[in-house]
Each structure stands twice: as structure tokens, then as C-alpha cells.
Amino acid sequence: MPTAKHIEMLRLLHSQTLKGVTAWETTAEDDVYLASFPSYGVAIRSWDASDGTGYSLQITNNEGSVVAELRAGDFEGPDLRVSEAYSLLKETFEGARRIAMGVDQAVDSILDNLRSQQAA
Amino acid sequence: MLERAVGYVVAHHWGDVASVVGLPLTLGGLALTLLAALRARQAAQVAGIAVAELRSGLAYDDAVEVLSASIAMLEEIRYLNRISVRDAQWLVLERCASMRRKLLTIDTAAGPLTGSHRTTIQNAVTHLRRLEKQLEKSMSQDDAVPDGVKTTQIVSRLLDNIEAVLREVRQGTGA
């Protein structure tokens, strides 16, 4: 059962990811992105489920082992509803993918080139 | 006999003399005690600094040794992964576990590592653990081995990162 701290962590991770502050990177697994901190790490993953796409946030300890995994369905309370948790996880995953794959840099670079061509 | 002795002491005010003499002696003793305590404290501080310097020196040597060994292991993991022999997966698994254990021995509190270095090391530990899990799963279920190209990319990135940490530790730099 997620605590208030889990909810705060998810919200902060979501906002920091959308701002491009959290340094997500690809892993050897498909659809798993990892962000590391000095003693711990978080990984966000997605998978295809029969009822849509599932998302979860994994907390890893200093040995790299997953010590907790949070899914949208785990959040059901007055502070965070399942649907909001799902949106936060989905948007965090999409932001993590953009950062890890360098999508934003690629788009910026392409835009710069296109604008230069247009101006010439 | 005792009464005569007491009478003599009282008659000649020896009690007052003893009080007058005792006060400076007591103050002198107190001053000496404080001085000794101060010197002992200074000696303990010097010893503490020496121990901290020694620990820091040992932690530096240890960090450099572990990081250097890790680079060699990562190069071996990358090579084993590139040759893509199924039997080599056991070796990759063993090397990943050994390297992870080695990285965990670095004294991050006393050593020369910055927060950024610690994050890089934690990142390597987490990637290696995830790779171990993937390999364990694929080997126990006789599944296809993990994507070799992706794994090589990750290992190459870890190699670059750890080499950068080692370089910065040797130069005494780092964010």
C-alpha cells in the first residue's frame, strides 16, 4: 500500500521528468528506463496488458535490487485516485522515454536545420 | 595527648594557615588538571585527523583499485557479449555479479568520490543487477538470450562513465 511519501515521490518524479531535470536512460530491457541517485535508483516500465498498457515504478536499493514496485492500481485513496496515478505514471514513462532516447534534442536539432534552410 | 595537640593547633591558628595555603594549592591543581585535559583533547584531535587522513588515503587507493578492476571486467563483459556464445552467458552473469559486488565495497563515505561519482556507481550497480536478472531468467527458462546489441550499448556506456569517474578521481576533480 503506497504511503504519502510514495505519492509525493511519484508527483515529484513526474514534475521533474516533464521539466527535463531527471536524467533517465535506457536499459538493456525493452520499455524500461532508469534514473539513478547517489544510493538508490528508480526504473519506470511499461507492458502490454489485455486491458491496455500497464505502467509501474520500481525502486531499487544500493545493491541494484528492486525493493518496491508501484502500479496505478496500488493507489486508491483520498490523496491519489487510480486514474490520476495512471496518468502520472504514463506521462512520467513518456517523459522518461523522450529524455532517454534524446527525442527532444533530435527535434530541436532538426528544427534548427529546417529553420536555417528556410531562412537561406 | 590528642587534646593537647588539638589545643596547640587551635591556639596557633594552624587551621587558618592551612586554609590560606590550601586555596592557592587547590587553584594550582585545578589549573594543572585543565591544562592536562586541554593537551589530551588537542592530542586526540591530532590523532583523529591522522586517522581520517589515513582512512581517506586507504579509501582513495581502494576506489582507484576497484574502479580500475571494474573497467577491466566491463571490457571482458562487452567482449563476451559480443561473441554471443550461449555458454558465455554464464561468464557474463558471473562477471556482472563480481563487478557489482566489487563496486559495493567502495567506501563512499570516506573516499574521494563526489555525489556525481556515487550516482554513476549506483547507476552501474543497478544496470548490472538488472542484466543479471535478465540473464538468470533467460537461462533458467531456456529463453532467448537478452538483446546483445542493447546490452553492448549499455556496457559501453557504463565503461565510459566508470572511466570518467576514475579519471576525475585521479585528477581530484568532479562535480
* Strand ordering within the main sheet of chain A: 1-2-3-4-5
Distance between the termini of chain A: 59 Å
For the biggest sheet of chain B, the summary is: none
Range of helix content of chain A: 40-55%
Low-pLDDT residue intervals, each spanning 5 or more residues of chain B? none
Q: Largest interface, and how many residues on either side?
A: A-B, 20 and 24 residues
Specify the number of helices of chain A.
3
Q: Beta-strand percentage of chain A?
A: 25-35%
Give a written overview of the molecule.
The complex is a heterodimer of chains A (120) and B (175). Chain A is 43% helix and 27% strand. Chain A is α+β, with helices and mostly antiparallel strands and 120 residues long. Chain A has a 5-stranded antiparallel beta sheet with strand order 1-2-3-4-5, with helices on one face. In chain A, a hairpin with a 5-residue loop joins β1 and β2. The model of chain A has no long low-confidence stretch (mean pLDDT 92). With 175 residues, chain B is mainly alpha-helical. Helices cover 84% and strands 0% of the residues of chain B. Chain B starts with a helix and ends with a helix. Chain A binds chain B through residues 25-30, 32, 34, 36-41, 43, 60, 62-65, and chain B through 100, 104, 108, 115, 118-120, 122-123, 125-131, 134, 146-147, 150-151, 153-154, 157.
Give the helices and strands, then pairings:
The complex is a heterodimer of chains A (120) and B (175).
Chain A lengths: L3 H15 L5 E3 L5 E5 L4 E9 L2 E9 L5 E6 L10 H20 L1 H17 L1
Helix pairs in contact in A: 1-2
Chain B lengths: L1 H10 L2 H70 L4 H17 L10 H26 L7 H24 L4
Summarize the structure.
The complex is a heterodimer of chains A (120) and B (175). With 120 residues, chain A is α+β, with helices and mostly antiparallel strands.
